Amino acid sequence: MTISTAEDVRTVSLVIGRDGIRSRSGEYSDVVVGTRYLEREGRLVAGDGCVFCAIVHGQADASVVHEDESVVAFMDLRPVNPGHLLVVPKTHAVGLEDLQEDVGVQVWKVAHRLGRALRRSGLRCEGVNLLLADGEAAFQEVFHVHLHVIPRFAGDPFRIDSDWRVHQREQLDETSAAVRDGLAALDTSLR
């Protein structure tokens, strides 16, 4: 979801009791200040409006399965299948352009390990998709980099539809040249 209007978000300072917000450590917060409340979804997020930052900072609940110095992995609130996980860098990065490469490596390492763990978990898992949506055109909804780890099985509801026809070698060669140019530009910008 994109937060773009005053209807979507209002800033609140709340006193939270035993029935309120609980951190990942299991402790209840007495006061949550400088958070935002998403009107349409009824949840608190960090002051910048990023729900994943709120999870990282213990300001929002998450069912955490892994945490280290640079990433946290937790259950997706709207899973495609049981076991659907998100691996999120602790440092806010809107998209791949903002993500430090070493942190990106850790995101993928953790996702790889979690994919293997899903196959041993007892959950229905005949395969695994790793999916990262980078940008609105790629259907990114939460603008904090996150890698989906989705357990798959025959007949499950998840679909990615496209026109998968074979392209001519000449077209593929032209496209590969454009990507190599992009890599050269990236290497130049890093100097």
Key terms:
three-stranded antiparallel beta sheet, five-stranded antiparallel beta sheet, 191 residues, alpha+beta
Kindly report how far apart the N and C termini lie. 36 Å
Biggest sheet strand order reads 4-5-6-8-7
Number of strands: 8
Q: Ranges with pLDDT <50 over ≥5 residues?
A: 1-41
Helix content percent band: 10-25%
Global shape: globular
- What class would the helix/strand composition place it in? alpha+beta
Mean pLDDT: 81
Alpha plus pi helix count:
3
Bin the strand percentage.
15-25%
| Major sheet attributes | 5 strands, antiparallel
Q: Radius of gyration over alpha carbons? A: 19 Å
Q: Which sequence of SSEs, written as H and E, runs from N to C?
A: EEEHEEEHEEH
Write up what this structure looks like.
- It is a single chain.
- The chain is of the alpha+beta class and about 190 residues long.
- It has three helices and eight strands.
- A five-stranded antiparallel beta sheet has the order 4-5-6-8-7, with helices on one face. A three-stranded antiparallel beta sheet has the order 1-2-3.
- The longest helix has 21 residues.
- It is globular and about 50 Å long.
- The two termini are about 35 Å apart.
- The N terminus is likely disordered.
Concise description?
With 191 residues, this protein is α+β, with helices and mostly antiparallel strands. It has helices at residues 51-56, 101-120, 169-189, and strands at residues 9-15, 31-38, 43-45, 64-67, 71-75, 85-89, 127-131, 147-152. The strands form 2 sheets. It has a 5-stranded antiparallel sheet, with helices on one face. Strands 1-2-3 form a 3-stranded antiparallel sheet.
